[in-house]
Amino acid sequence: MRSAFVQALIHLAERDDRIVLMTGDLGFMALEPFTDRFPARFFNAGVAEQNMVGMATGLAEGGFIPYVYSITPFITLRPYEFIRNGPVQHCLPVRIVGIGGGFEYATNGMSHYGLEDVGVMRIQPGLTVITPADHEQAGAAIRATSELAGPVYYRLGKDNTMTVPGLGGAFQLGRTQLVREGEDILIIAMGSVAVEAVGAAQILQTHGISARVELVSSFNPAPVEDLARQLTGFQHVLTVEAHYALGGVGSLVCEVVAERGLSCRVTRCAVGACTDGVSGNQRFLYARHGLTGQAIADRGRNLLSTTMPWASRT
Q1: Per the CB 3.0–4.6 Å rule, which of 19, 143, 250, 252 could disulfide with 239?
Q2: What is the pLDDT of residues 22-68, one digit of tens each?
Q3: pTM recorded for the entire structure
Q4: Which CATH fold topology does 176-306 show?
């Protein structure tokens, strides 16, 4: 999604000279199209994310629209107090861009995993949180939210080629996106792991199970009304996210179920425990934490085994 972000930002910057880009000493081989086009509007703040957010807050107070860019945990956790006390408290248009949510920096170890970012960011009132599922939706989301008055957090993936079947780059703030119709079970996914959710639906189809797949790509505003309507039509719901089970889309769905008094059962496919130091590539870690299409499909079949006994048969 990095290329989609940069291209969308260039498009916006050509029309608005208030836009500036800041990085925490990374993004090389990705940000050059912007830096070459607008060298006077690019700042490398070094490995000093707190200072970078502080600088961005001052720039926003002065009338600029700064985009601050770093790896997900570095741009959300390290400067969190600065985000809270700066752009959030003062409703300033600072755009916080986190790259590589979930396990996308897998081989770098847990210091680089982004497994709690959505949870910590969405609890801040007035901070819009955007979680695109692929590069096409990322570009659409950057453009759609460019004129918001307050701060925005974008959780962007590294992959510049993968697309989620059925999505077609669709994005609407505060709404879900339907990518696959179905009637036996509802799968609600967040972020780039959505491609595994669609894969799970395809596997379930081979077992005669029809799975509906919806994406949540927007928090604050969250698609509460859309979710409430969809949840009323299903007994069983799976949520899928490369994030801890607490705080992300699974928690959002459970909140809607509880607050609306709905009767469906929610099962969260997420990272359930702190990683134990074992590392590998993203695919290895998806398998280890039950986030592959096959693992998600198996959870779905087990859930349906009581209401559709034949669903659990091979």
Answers
A1: 250
A2: 999 998 889 999 999 999 999 999 999 999 999 999 999 999 999 99
A3: 0.95
A4: Rossmann fold (3.40.50)
